[in-house]
Amino acid sequence: MAADSAQLSSQLAEATLNESVSALKAEFSDRVPIRSIISRTDGGSGFAGQHVRVGGWVKTGRKADKDAFAFLELNDGSCPGNLQVIVEADKGDLGQLVPTGTCVVVDGVLKLPPAGAKQKVELRVEKVVHLGPVDPAKYPLPKTKLTLEFLRDVVHLRSRTNTISAVARIRNALAYATHTFFQKHGFLYVHTPIITTSDCEGAGEMFQVTTLISEGERLERELIKNPPPSEADLEAAKLIIKEKGDAVSQLKSAKASKEEIGAAVAELKRAKENDLKLEERSKLQPGIPKKDGKIDYTQDFFARQAFLTVSGQLQVESYACALSSVYTFGPTFRAENSHTSRHLAEFWMVEPELAFAELKDDMNCAEAYVKFLCQWLLDNCYDDMEFISRQFDKTCIDRLKMVASTPFERITYTEAVELLIDAVKNGKKFENHVEWGIDLASEHERFLTEVKFQKPVIVYNYPKGIKAFYMRLNDDNKTVAAMDVLVPKVGELIGGSQREERYDVIHSRIAEMGLPIEPYEWYLDLRRFGTVKHAGFGLGFERMLLFATGLDNIRDVIPFPRYPGRADL
Amino acid sequence: MAADSAQLSSQLAEATLNESVSALKAEFSDRVPIRSIISRTDGGSGFAGQHVRVGGWVKTGRKADKDAFAFLELNDGSCPGNLQVIVEADKGDLGQLVPTGTCVVVDGVLKLPPAGAKQKVELRVEKVVHLGPVDPAKYPLPKTKLTLEFLRDVVHLRSRTNTISAVARIRNALAYATHTFFQKHGFLYVHTPIITTSDCEGAGEMFQVTTLISEGERLERELIKNPPPSEADLEAAKLIIKEKGDAVSQLKSAKASKEEIGAAVAELKRAKENDLKLEERSKLQPGIPKKDGKIDYTQDFFARQAFLTVSGQLQVESYACALSSVYTFGPTFRAENSHTSRHLAEFWMVEPELAFAELKDDMNCAEAYVKFLCQWLLDNCYDDMEFISRQFDKTCIDRLKMVASTPFERITYTEAVELLIDAVKNGKKFENHVEWGIDLASEHERFLTEVKFQKPVIVYNYPKGIKAFYMRLNDDNKTVAAMDVLVPKVGELIGGSQREERYDVIHSRIAEMGLPIEPYEWYLDLRRFGTVKHAGFGLGFERMLLFATGLDNIRDVIPFPRYPGRADL
To answer: Do the chains contact at A185 and B57, CB–CB below 8 Å?
Structure first.
């Protein structure tokens, strides 16, 4: 470390030619994000000689040169890269500084590293401003390589790992890219409701939202503390009414003064009120309120049964039929008891809805959107994608490039089934039998996109029997204007359709499917009054993350996964 | 209409000098958004002579010149303005075209209106491409001016009104401005969970999320269809076991063949299995599963009691303590039985969290964010703000301008209380008594921001007794580093604080407040391992909308309001 001061002064001269690093400080903090220093084409070397404050968590630390100084790899989550930090022994307790997970804020001077070093710039510490220590014996995230499965038990700290933080940045980028894409194209973001009383289909797979249980328990506690009136109490109250009533009669027949009679009538009134209160209290039942043997939802918070939404589509359609191009991006829920790597009980969906649009427009929009997301990651998250590519999926960057630049194949469902039947004839084995009318299985979808076309495929015009009532019936009377976007790695990424805008047709489709009409009256109103051709789709946001990163388990691409038996935090 | 063709040809010449309107068509539709035509400095006159397809809903329509043609004011939700459309009788059924709410798609030629007209351009229809009719006798939104209260009963159609569509565009703008602001400043968007098992404070005001009720009902239906075994069934099963056991014994003592004994043993085994199944089925109880008199939540979907989140703050802190600057923007829930114009059961919150930051940084961030939102509306929603200003609140534009450009006043809670006491001395009457230690009431907050300072005010350093356990204790041991941003019209818009990062202090604060430690162990881990100074705040998104628009009722600034007794759709 002896030649440093000479080296430094030459670096200072160099730095004056460059911009000031302190101008890059996070606007609401004294520190400069590590990304601003090292994520530049020069790797930060242009800042050599400048003073800066940085903060972060130690990824790895080690003492060197007989404990004369320590090297820390510092990461603040702003980028996958670390800043190498050198602390001399007189600047701080090296033993406290080196454990993985330690938080430090330091002031120091940026300097060029020794020739041959991997990093382009490093920081020599002048002052340790803050130290948040870690007891390595207790830290749940030791330096050893941890499996993603292990990390699922440590959701509150796993964002400090390279992988989960890279996923968080990629997820952030995809979310902002989503808003940017739709705003750029004139779509309005609409917050559809999370709590819904509308979606009556398959209520078995919905989570119920209620205050009945807690209200029932509150009442139970209250009744224990303050028991309801007994039969004797009620009889006594009736007796008092009778007495007070008799008193009034007597006063009246005795032609007592108005004041006297008035006072007695007031007493009678009070006695009656008291009795009424007791009567009501005596009817209180602990537990969930029932009426005619069924749960009495009129007493629930919303005066009816309420659920967590499974999709914002129906509601956002009402906005499309007024504002033309809209989208929703929010959480959706399924109470399915699925323990697979592809299902979550709580997940995020992007659902655009376009008025004055047909299936072709819907497909164009879906294709443009997916391409935009891929290009966005290449433009804004390349460093994270490189990390993921090294650690998990060597093909992920090429996949993004391919999808961003290749026109999607578009084939009808009927063509898709023919291709699959041909494949079977040529020896391809599927677990699920292929014939016209089946719902394509994941193996079929992945064959089409990964093997047959080796690019994204949009399959459209599905048999009406396997699709929802709101999809527009085609003229063949057999298929509906539905479309699925299939991509390599995950299969179905997007499902959408042109919506049935003809009142008579959708009315009979609802009946045909054995659904009740009444809950859909508002939805029918959109067709009754000023109906418009419209179309939309839904993209499972976590599916997109699996596609982008190549990770295998959906529980690793959402910050706080919810699935049967687990909802940590 | 006679001179039109001559007029048109001169307009065509003019149009060639201008850009092509068809280049402005919505990318995933054939139509051109009305905004692209009329929201220009020339009001669209530069497009005169060009052919275009537009679609929208008729705001008002009337027949003219003895039914020779009709005027339609067409709106497609892309902007508050309408396009005037002229249809001649031979182009369509004028009677069907003119009712309010009718959807039409038309091809036509843009032309300059007669001198003196309000509009700068109008459309002469060549072809009616689509017509979605309305029966005016049945349409729930007649042309007459409707109250916002009335519209709350028509949530599926109210976005077709001028006010609700303006609010939707303003809401969209504020949401995108929020993302833009935080992304620009290097914050990462984190999706905190909606379903939570973490927030144990005040569980009484939380909605419970459960599958126990529907599972109980499913079981009840199943048991009716397929009744549980009777006592006699169970006895019979036991008898069969005995018989089969006896048979085995007899065969054994008779030294029967291995095959014979084996077969008898197998029968015995089946009988025992059958008995076990019956035993289990006999224990099934319809309704909610209980254990020791309490609801058995181990049988609920998440194997424990789960709720809808009231705030993403605690969870997002875990991400800030890894990624430095993060924010969450999502729905939050309160099961409070409030029927006021300021409360919703479901509402959206923006919650940034900054690591390496103190209260001052938090205040700087809040101020910059609110200013950014105001300026964004002035830059991007001026036409909607003008509409709102005309219809509801003449001061709303000035308020945005003032907040965007005026430094916020910053005073301590102690100073605020002194100012309020002074005001009382000078004759100001408050409903709530003022003294150090009280929670400021809305009347106090509004006095400070509206009367005393007439600009936004940040009040900070509140008494610890009225604030949450996680707020950082100041050195005076009496106050915590909390802050509220107060603005004219709504009072408190933002609440935030520096978080307590010292393990020992937060541990004793939790105990001091009588909260259990166990559910917060994960939160304490953030302080146990690599703790960092951090701070954050929450902005009630609907509050911001009330502030921006000056509307009075929060139910009108969210698309699908949820409140006690109501959750339409």
So the answer is: no
